[in-house]
Design brief:
The complex is a heterodimer of chains A (862) and B (399). With 862 residues, chain A is of the alpha/beta class. Among the domains of chain A are: 172 residues, SH3 type barrels; 143 residues, Rossmann fold (3-Layer(aba) Sandwich), CATH 3.40.50.300; 76 residues, Orthogonal Bundle (Helicase, Ruva Protein, domain 3); 97 residues, Orthogonal Bundle (Arc Repressor Mutant, subunit A). Helices cover 52% and strands 14% of the residues of chain A. Chain A contains 32 helices and 21 strands. In chain A, a hairpin with a 4-residue loop joins strand 4 and strand 5. In chain A, helix 5 packs across helix 8, helix 8 crosses helix 10 and helix 24 crosses helix 25. Chain B is of the alpha/beta class. Chain B has three domains: 179 residues, P-loop containing nucleotide triphosphate hydrolases (Rossmann fold, 3-Layer(aba) Sandwich), CATH 3.40.50.300; 89 residues, no CATH class; 116 residues, Arc Repressor Mutant, subunit A. In chain B, strands 2-5-6-1-7 form a five-stranded parallel sheet, with helices on both faces. Chain B has a two-stranded antiparallel sheet with strand order 3-4. Chain B has a two-stranded antiparallel sheet with strand order 8-9. In chain B, a hairpin with a 2-residue loop joins strand 3 and strand 4. The longest helix of chain B is centred in the first third of the chain and has 19 residues. Classes of the chains: A alpha/beta (862), B alpha/beta (399). At the A-B interface, helix 16, helix 19, helix 26, helix 28 and helix 29 of A face helix 1, strand 3, helix 4, helix 6 and helix 8 of B. Chain A: Its main location: nucleus. Chain A: One of its GO terms (molecular function) is DNA replication origin binding. Chain A: InterPro entries: AAA+_ATPase, AAA_lid_10, ATPase_AAA_core, BAH_dom, BAH_sf, Cdc6_C, ORC1/CDC6, P-loop_NTPase. Chain A: It holds the Pfam family AAA_lid_10.
Chain lengths: 862, 399
């Protein structure tokens, strides 16, 4: 994790206050200096600059434009910003509104009103570049400072994407222009200048700078082991085939499954293909290449860096391949995965030869894939052309060139569309490899899928998970044959009656639903925190109702009726230790996995500090009573966070007992829980009836009376809906057994009665009746002894004497003590008797586990 | 019951329905046998009817006696499921990680796609005592929600198992209980006896098999054999004890004595029924027997109150002085030694643990023999002096 480990940063104002407001006691500044103690570098950020702001997740800092800087009366430094949002910050469901694929470097001009634009100046990390582009424009290749440069094409107002208004567009551009000037003059934080310590430090703030390098190294080493050679070929083949066809058809191509499935072609074939498309690309080249070279050069700033950029892009392309190989593999089922690997191994030797032979050729074609124009022109055209262009650049200055490209790139759409695609590829792998690296949890496999932009998702339907034991995917092997669909009415009914079947609505809980909904909704709208305690006996729909509420709220949030929120759920039963709750919550929120104590610290920090763009969190704590510890610190913390000002945390605590807060909680915990209570009453028989009939809607499987019988019976006992459904399910089974002819049968009273009897019958009487003769005599002897002594406890010795007497009366051979002891322990194992530890032998005390009347009743019958 | 269970499992595998059930029955009532039988049938059924479905059922057989806590059980499940965090039969990671991992694994599946899993929890009652019943809660919770189809089957002999479940665990259990009872009567018992003894048709020596089977048929009609069996049947309906008895009897069969006789069975039954403590008494010396008799009298006089060595010694002295002519008057240390031997044989048992402070002579003891056992043992004791016998019969006879 790259927290800001390396240095303490000192923030100081740049220049003198430009204006000050006496009344508000604020003074405004035009810039801020960030001084790093360790590297002794200074960075100046001025108004209008684009900055990165610390976010919830250290890897994903927020992007913003600095609008205003001021110091308030209490000497706190503040900044007013205009937010930009990344794609990841846009709700998943809205992303599809975009209808196009977005690279990781693209941000959106944020017009959502809910966010706080006033932030503490200390959260500013560094300055970056944000380039405005027209919608149709493609992203220019910037290989050098990927983390530092963002593009903005559209704005986002929480509901839909809009094209940037000309006003904002020009404003943004102006800001860039200004920045360009500053860049030229001060040079301290020019992104292109890789060598200055400032920049290094900056990079390490966002993402430890060595990481990409590491990846490159790794990839290269991978290359040397020729395992990835196949993937390389595959990749190149794929891109190559993209090149052959017209660029306008690229979207289709991306999803082109044949090319992918053909990936298992033999190496030589691939190489042939490569040769082919080298030729195919060649004619395309001259038209587009010129401008492209200019573009790259301009961004790189100086000619000697061309090879460097090529190298870099190459390596990133390799990363891309790496990633793609992953995705390809992951896509396959586990079985074929193994096969694939073995196949690869087999092919290895054969390929090695081919590779070494045509290695150079392939490399060139590879670099052609990513930076086709520059490379080609380098080779084909003269270097003089480049020199000319560079001189042109120098004379014009950066600004002019940039505008030139901006205006020109519209016309060169067709060529740059290809470019974009290539540009995307290097973007994704970094994220990919990073995410799969950092999270070694089962969740990790889900996380990247959420965070990666839509484009990556298309390319890599399943996230990559390295096959190391720590990062194992928790997955049960798939079944080979599909599950059968229910055939008969009864089977269908049974499926619907299963507890796991999720009903469309929750009947009989409308009131509770509404209450909880209102509670959460109001808190969400206010942006405050709060607690609610929900109690009720098992099987009364507590968890189901709360989930339903969350579902509805999420729906509402999608439709923009509510501010968006995060939803976290923990279950006390599913934790091994109450303190694990912290770990799980943190993992849900940020995806980090740390120890319990550390997680507690992080969470406390998260909820107590004001986060500018943090969403409200809704936390469901199921089985609350299990989070009880002796010091109760887990509960205390949980309920303390919502009371803090900036927490934006709503807690819904669920437990069985109504008086839990009073019974087990300390006063300070109970008082923080608050008085918002709700208790779920057990279902009445009418409600149970309604539940069953709503589930069985459209399936004629039950008699009306049968349903009523079940619901009355269950309501009288516990009001547990689960029990009710189980009985009904069992009744359908009995009905199916009983059915002889193939006529459609519905569940009748008799079946239901049988099911109920089966579930509620006391097993003891039956067990006694089926016991052996001496076991029964022994029970009789116990009864006799009890009656004699008047105490409900006897030693075996006493019972034994009675037993012998009874045997004599019945004319049976009296058993030996050993046999009696055996009988006694058998009855004890069934828990008909309660026994002491058996080492006391004859003095072992015996007690009945059921009432004497039951025993009498069971014994008398025969 | 068989059909019920078979149907249950079939639905899990074919329809992907989740279920939970308990099989309850006394020891030796064939719970495990039933389950194994059903599983075998199920496998056959698949192979016959649906060749396509590669039977992909995992069968974690967890025994409560081996998996003493949730942590071990969890590791065992993971190992048996061969999930990806298993490296060479070993499972790494902390308890919390493992639990989260397993739950995640099970959560990701859904009804139609993942292959059903059968959890068999042997000695289910021992799982109940695990902390918070976490494992049971989670297993039942999965079986009640739309996740990977699982069937949880518990085997136990405790009739009161449901009362041991916590209420939220109980609510999640589907309350499907299959009770197994030995509900057959004596006629069926005889049939079982015959079936157990008969040689199968594929026995190589056909003529001998015929002879043997005839003999078994005769045996089953024999009066003495029926008596023996009846006796055993009255004591226990457990089939395992029948097997034990037959094993004892069959071990008498040799080349020269090829057929089982009624006498063999009777002998076996006698061995089977003998009282262990009375057996020990047989091997005691006369002095030790005298001490036991003294204790018996003390028990009679004080109605089962505990006694100490000094009381026993006094009683013995009385007998020696007044009555005994054949007994040598042993010294006290010798008697003490004999008494300690009895202690070691656990024929007497101290009430509390012997401590250093209390003198051994005054340690309170209890006799672990019933008077009838003592009398029986004396009857068969070889060369018992007659005055000892008389003394045993009545403590007051010398008056």
């Amino acid at each position: 994790m790259n927290t800001r480990q390396q240095s303490k940063l000192i923030y100081s104002w740049y220049g003198k206050p430009t204006s000050s407001d006496r009344k508000l006691r604020t003074s405004q500044y035009k810039g801020i200096l960030i001084t790093s103690e360790s590297s002794r570098t200074e960075t100046c950020i001025q108004l209008g600059d684009f900055i990165l702001v610390e976010g919830v997740n250290a890897d994903q800092p927020y992007v913003a434009q600095l609008m205003d800087l001021y110091e308030d009366g209490a000497q706190h430094k503040h900044a007013v910003v205009q937010w930009f949002c990344r794609l990841e910050e846009i709700p998943q469901n809205k992303r599809k509104l975009l209808k196009r694929e977005v690279s990781a470097q693209e941000v959106f001009f944020d017009q959502v009103l809910g966010y706080d634009t006033d932030i503490a100046a200390e959260t500013i990390i560094k300055s970056i570049m944000v380039l405005p582009l027209h919608l149709g424009e493609e992203l220019p290749i910037i290989t050098l400072n990927k983390e530092q440069t963002f593009y903005v094409k559209q704005s986002w107002d929480g509901k839909c994407f809009k094209v940037l208004s000309p006003d904002t567009f020009s404003k943004l551009k102006e800001a860039n222009k200004k920045r360009g000037v500053i860049t030229n003059s001060s040079k301290a934080f020019i992104p292109s200048d890789t060598l200055t310590p400032v920049k290094k430090e900056m990079e390490s703030v966002v993402r430890s700078a060595t990481k990409p390098k590491n990846i490159d190294m790794e990839i290269e080493s991978k290359h040397s082991t020729s395992k990835s050679s196949l993937a390389k070929e595959r990749h190149s083949q794929r891109v190559a085939s993209n090149d052959i066809k017209t660029p306008t058809a690229r979207k289709k191509l991306e999803l082109n499954s044949p090319t992918r499935s053909k990936a298992k072609l033999l190496g030589c074939e691939v190489l042939n293909l490569l040769d082919d498309d080298c030729d195919a690309v060649a004619p395309l080249e001259p038209s587009a290449s010129k401008r492209k070279v200019k573009f790259t050069n301009e961004i790189l700033g100086s000619p000697p860096k061309i090879p460097c950029s090529n190298d870099k892009s190459k390596s990133t392309s390799e990363t891309a391949e790496h990633c793609q190989r992953f995705s390809d593999i992951i896509q396959l089922s586990p079985y074929t995965r193994v096969k694939n690997f073995s196949e690869k191994d087999k092919n290895l030797h054969g390929k090695d030869d081919n590779l070494s032979l045509v290695g150079y050729q392939k490399l060139s074609s590879l670099s052609l894939v990513l930076t086709p124009r520059s490379r080609r022109t380098c080779a084909q055209k003269t270097s003089a052309l480049i020199a000319e262009q560079i001189s042109l650049l120098k004379s014009h200055g950066k600004l002019a060139a940039e505008e030139d490209v901006l205006s020109g790139s519209d016309s060169s759409y067709s060529s740059s569309s290809e470019e974009e695609e290539d540009d995307d590829v290097p973007c994704t792998p970094e994220k990919k490899t990073k995410s799969s690296r950092i999270f070694s949890t089962p969740k990790s496999s889900r996380k990247p899928a959420v965070h990666t932009p839509a484009k990556t998702q298309k390319k890599t339907p399943l996230p990559g998970t390295p096959r190391t034991p720590r990062n194992a995917t928790p997955e049960i092997p798939r079944r080979i044959q599909a599950a059968q669909e229910p055939a008969s009415v009864l089977e269908k009914a049974r499926l619907r009656l299963h507890v796991s079947a999720i009903p469309e609505s929750l009947p009989c809980r409308e009131e509770e639903f509404q209450d909880i909904y209102n509670f959460v909704e109001s808190k969400l709208i206010d942006g405050t925190g709060g607690c609610m305690y929900i109690s009720g006996v098992p099987g009364t729909g507590k968890t189901a109702t709360v989930h339903e509420v969350i579902r509805c709220l999420q729906q509402a949030a999608e439709n923009d009726e509510l501010p968006p929120f995060q939803f976290v759920e923990i279950n006390g039963m599913k934790l091994t230790d109450p303190h694990q709750a912290y770990v799980q919550i943190l993992e849900f929120l940020t995806g980090q996995k740390v120890t319990a104590t550390h997680a507690a610290v992080l969470l406390a920090k998260l909820f107590s500090t004001p986060g500018p763009k943090r969403k409200t969190t809704v936390l469901i704590v199921d089985e609350l009573d299990l989070l009880w510890t002796r010091k109760q610190n887990v509960m205390y913390n949980l309920f303390d966070w919502p009371t803090q000002k900036h927490s934006k945390l709503i807690i819904l605590a669920i437990a069985n007992t109504m008086d839990l807060p009073e019974r087990i909680m300390m006063n300070r915990v109970a008082s923080r829980l608050g008085l918002t209570r709700m208790s779920f009453q057990p279902y009445t028989y009418k409600q149970l009836q309604q539940i069953i009939s709503s589930r069985l809607k459209g399936v004629k499987a039950f008699e009306e009376d049968a349903v009523q019988l079940v619901s009355r019976k269950v309501a009288a006992l516990s009001g547990d809906a689960r029990r009710c459904l189980d009985i009904c399910r069992r009744a359908t089974e009995i009905c199916e057994f009983a059915r002889q002819k193939r006529t459609p049968e519905i569940v009748r009273m008799a079946h239901v009665t049988e099911a109920i009897d089966e579930m509620f019958s006391s097993p003891y009487v039956n067990a006694i009746r089926n016991a052996s003769l001496h076991e029964q005599i022994f029970l009789k002897a116990i009864l006799a002894e009890f009656r004699r002594a008047g105490v409900e406890e006897a030693t075996v010795q006493q019972v034994y004497q009675h037993h012998v007497a009874l045997c004599r009366m019945e004319g049976l051979q009296s058993p030996t003590v050993s046999e009696v002891m055996a009988i006694c322990s058998r009855l004890g194992a069934c828990r008909l008797l309660l026994l002491e530890a058996s080492n006391k032998y004859l003095h072992m005390r015996v007690r009945l586990n059921l009432s004497q009347d039951d025993v009498m009743y069971a014994l008398r019958e025969e | 019951q068989h059909r019920h269970l078979l149907e249950l499992l079939r639905r899990t595998t074919v329809h992907g329905e989740s279920n939970s059930a308990l099989i309850i029955g006394p020891r030796g009532s064939g719970k495990t046998t039933l389950l194994n039988h059903v599983l075998k049938d199920l496998r056959e059924m698949k192979q016959v009817t649906e060749n396509l479905l590669e039977f992909f059922m995992k069968n974690p057989f967890l025994s409560g006696l081996l998996q003493t806590n949730d942590k071990v059980a969890l590791k065992e499940i993971t190992r048996q499921l061969q999930l990806e965090n298993v490296v060479g039969d070993k499972v790494f990671g902390s308890f919390a990680e493992n639990l989260a991992f397993l739950l995640e694994a099970l959560r990701r599946g859904n009804r139609t796609s993942s292959c059903p899993i059968l959890f068999v929890l042997d000695e289910f009652d021992l799982f109940v005592h695990h902390k918070n019943q976490t494992l049971l809660y989670n297993l039942f919770d999965i079986s009640q929600s739309a996740q990977t189809p699982v069937t949880v089957i518990g085997l136990t002999c405790r009739q009161d198992i449901l009362e041991l479940l916590e209420k939220r665990v109980k609510s999640r259990f589907s309350h499907r209980q299959i009770y197994l009872m030995n509900s057959f009567d004596f006629k069926e018992y005889i049939k079982i006896f015959k079936k157990q003894l008969s040689l199968p048709a594929e026995f190589p020596d056909e003529s001998f098999a015929q002879k043997w089977n005839n003999n078994v048929q005769h045996l089953s009609e024999d009066k003495t054999v029926q008596d023996v069996l009846q006796n055993l049947f009255h004591h226990t309906k457990d089939l395992r004890s029948l097997h034990l008895l037959l094993m004892l009897a069959l071990s008498a069969v040799t080349v020269h004595h090829p057929l089982l006789t009624a006498a063999d069975l009777q002998e076996a039954s006698r061995q089977h029924r003998t009282d262990s403590k009375a057996n020990i008494v047989h091997g005691l010396s006369v002095l030790e027997i005298c001490l036991i008799i003294a204790m018996k009298h003390l028990n009679d006089v004080y109605d089962g109150e505990p006694f100490n060595f000094q009381m026993v010694y006094n009683e013995f002295q009385k007998f020696i002085q007044r009555k005994a002519h054949s007994m040598y008057n042993f010294e006290k240390p010798v008697v003490m030694k004999a008494f300690e031997h009895l202690l070691q044989l656990e024929l007497v048992k101290p009430l509390e643990r012997p401590s250093a402070r209390a003198q051994r002579e005054y340690l309170l003891m209890k006799l672990l023999l019933d008077s009838s056992q003592i009398m029986d043992a004396l009857q068969v004791y070889p060369n018992c002096p007659t005055d000892v016998k008389q003394w045993a019969a009545s403590s007051l006879s010398w008056l």
